[in-house]
Amino acid sequence: MTTVTLIPGDGIGPEVTAAARRVVDASGARVQWQQLDAGMATLERTGEAVPEAVFESVLRNRVALKGPMGNTFGGRFRVTRRARRAGGEIEERSYPGPTIALRGELELFANVRPAKTFEGIGSRYQGVDIVLFRENSEDLYIGAERMVDEHTAEAIKRITHAGSERMASFAADYMQRTGRKRVTIGHKSNVLKLTDGLFLKTCQDTLAQYPGLSVDARLVDALCMELVIRPERFDCLLLPNLYGDILSDLTAGLVGGLGVAPGANIGRDCAMFEAVHGCAPDIAGQNRANPSSMILSAVMMLRYIGESVAANRVEAALGTVLREGGKVTRDLGGSADTTEMTAAIIEWLERPSSA
């Protein structure tokens, strides 16, 4: 039995995480849940966006399923942590938002974002099956910004050999486990010769140690163009933090949008799986949210903890419901609410022929 930390999040988060939980429970997976709150609503209620108990739970259980969280534009969140080193001094750090705080404090250096076409989803493309690997701890997202003067702001872009090597090794190991063969490195080293140049060279050198992989590289702007022209040509993408963030939304758009795009944040000690869309406060509490991204993130989680049979069954059940189209939410072209779509997936899972 695997204990999973469940973090519902904000807005529609509680609705879609509840749907994913019900589907996982119906799949036959040996999972039990420890639910804890974090996010903007938690900040308003307790004064802390991510309470220490949440960090402790994820570190103890080593796996979490997280709903979308709110954020603000401008300003930073302070996160108070008891340091892991001996003595247990109190440290306070700041992050742009609660999700980035979780990634940073839990050292979840690898962001994995699959984008796959499903039959029944309205999309301009067919045959897309891409896994995007985004380095999750460096680049401009370290948050080292400052006002130079009243009219000028600047930010530091930091790329290290160690961080790039770690990310490339993770991507290669993931590809070998899942049978993928081709990876394209995205960069802008024609302009950012030191930072992106270091990322490109380190990734190329690291991936060269895996003879079964085919490796090429693209300038990130050219890569964007090629992705929207012929996305079916790509297998895996490997990018630094900022480009990975942007292109992961682009690849989601190739297959129908963020509503059908799952995500994982993985480190050496633990992993957090999350819906990649926002918390949609305008429809929160209305039972209208599409649970697909959250359910597909749970599929990734099940595979991570060794529940591959259950993962395959859930993915097949969701795929069937999407293909049939009769019990899907409005954004997917149907008229079902969240509860009805979830029930349709569970009904498929409970059929004797689906075992």
Features:
single chain; 355 residues; alpha/beta; Isopropylmalate Dehydrogenase; Rossmann fold; ten-stranded mixed beta sheet; two-stranded antiparallel ribbon; 11 helices; 14 strands; globular
Describe the protein's architecture and organization.
- With 355 residues, the chain is α/β, with parallel strands linked by helices.
- The protein has helices spanning 13-26, 40-46, 52-61, 98-105, 161-178, 195-207, 220-229, 241-254, 292-304, 308-324, 338-349, and strands spanning 2-7, 31-35, 63-66, 77-82, 90-95, 110-116, 129-135, 145-149, 152-155, 182-187, 214-219, 236-239, 262-266, 271-275.
- It folds into 2 domains: 1-123 and 255-355, Isopropylmalate Dehydrogenase; 124-240, Rossmann fold, CATH 3.40.50.
- The longest helix has 18 residues, at 161-178.
- The mean pLDDT is 91.
Radius of gyration: 20 Å
SSE order in H/E notation? EHEHHEEEHEEEEHEHEHEHEEHHH
Kindly report the CATH topology of the largest domain.
Isopropylmalate Dehydrogenase
Total strand count, please? 14
Query: Outline, from the CA principal axes?
Result: globular
Low-confidence stretches: none
Structure summary:
The protein is α/β, with parallel strands linked by helices.
Note the topology.
Layout: E1 2-7, H1 13-26, E2 31-35, H2 40-46, H3 52-61, E3 63-66, E4 77-82, E5 90-95, H4 98-105, E6 110-116, E7 129-135, E8 145-149, E9 152-155, H5 161-178, E10 182-187, H6 195-207, E11 214-219, H7 220-229, E12 236-239, H8 241-254, E13 262-266, E14 271-275, H9 292-304, H10 308-324, H11 338-349
Parallel strand pairs: 1-2, 1-3, 3-14, 7-12, 10-11, 10-12
Antiparallel strand pairs: 4-5, 6-7, 6-13, 8-9, 13-14
Helix pairs in contact: 1-9, 1-11, 5-6, 7-8, 9-10, 10-11
